[in-house]
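Troubleshooting: if your tokenizer reports a length mismatch, compare against these two reference records.
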Amino acid sequence: MAYNKTIWENKPSTNSPVNANNMNKIEQGIYDSSLGVEKIGDITLLDTTDKTSVVNAINELVNKFTPVVLYNDTTGTTGNITDLSDNVSNYSYLEIFYKMTNTIQSTKISGNRASLIVHVTDTTSHETYIQFKEVSFSGTTMTVNSSQEWENNWGSTGITAGNTNNIKVIKILGYK
């Protein structure tokens, strides 16, 4: 609740009397403002596991939001990755960057599986492509489980399906 300030006036004005009502209002305002003050700086209230010092707790919070590069290859790979820089189980979630053409996309996962999907419209050949890749993570490995491609030529009623694997993973970040 917002505090309503009293505009005090000097005697002989009677617009702001010093009485029990106004004094109790001041007391209540001081009391309400003091609630929770003892919790300021209370390290036990932080969402951290390290409660030994404020510095350690802040460092832990910073690490939660600073990603660790687990894989980085600007050319990308369409296959399995067996040399992630750390075990994925050490992270709360992963962010995967991938591309099929020059457009980079990303997805975040908190489990061990991800679906990577790319949609491309080629106005020169009048075709639309949709590619899908399912990957899973274990230890320091990303495994490609399946890939699919659907192609449609504009004006055609048919769709061509295949197992083409053109989606390239270019970067994987881990968040604590």
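Reference record two:
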Amino acid sequence: MLVDVGWLDTETALVSVRGDVDQDTVEELNAAVQECLAGSCARVVLDCSEAPYFDSAGISALVLADRMAARRGAVFQLMGVASRLLKLLELTGLDQTLSIADDIPPASAVTAPQTTGMATLTEWFGQAPGGGSTDPESADEPPGSDRLRALIESHEARKLRRRQNLEAARAKLDSARGPVPLID
């Protein structure tokens, strides 16, 4: 995955992602968003038009970016969202929480983050909006990230068990076949 950061104006950063956003590449995205928010950035626009795949770690990064921006009084927006990602956001209810635009809206059309719509995050994370620290320096993790991390780890553990079961079944099948007779 490639991440490019550019500036649309003095207060708006454009983060462009090319390639899959998954557990192996998500740190690059997190670092780019954090770098933008560390300065005087009032708005971060994430261009997803060249990112065909987001796994659960990628979705988590979107939530994290939105929470970090909100805690700093900035706006986080998605643009160029593919239908597959939009479907995931709809299934999780995050389409009601995250700001999604078809194109880059002008800065005058952007409003500061509101607390309305946070009920979806409450349901998703099982924690009240604004829970956790209000210290901007501790915005590295959104409220409920422990639960999300546990869900991701649980998913990874299930994948590992399936892989181990498959390997065991293959070994059992190979041993059941016995030695292959040589034909003279």
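Descriptive notes for reference record two:
- The domain at 2-176 is CATH 3.30.750.24 (Transcription Regulator spoIIAA).
- DSSP finds five helices and five strands in the chain.
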